[in-house]
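Example 3.2
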Amino acid sequence: MAKVPKGASPRKVAEIHYGSAMKGDKPTWEATLTKRNQTGRMYRHYWEVCEQRASIGCYYEFGKEDRVTDDRAKLFFKRFNADGSPRGRPVPITLKRDKDQGGEWRVHTPSY
């Protein structure tokens, strides 16, 4: 069963998000999303992009915190090709405390 540790920080949730996406671990990736993002057109689109990135060996590393408040966070992750070369500019990911998941941090808007 997919798990995101209770009380995980925004950075930890984002690292689990990108790591599970690039491993093709859809249940864990889905568990990092807000409840609203776990269905629908954008959900399918996000997963398709993850599959495309994973198929070419893309991976992500934490870059920096941009803004963090009590209920929202915006972080940047560096994106790399399989050979370790940078793949474009760092990408933003926003997280929020999801009331539908006990106020835990979850991914609101990912970028890949």
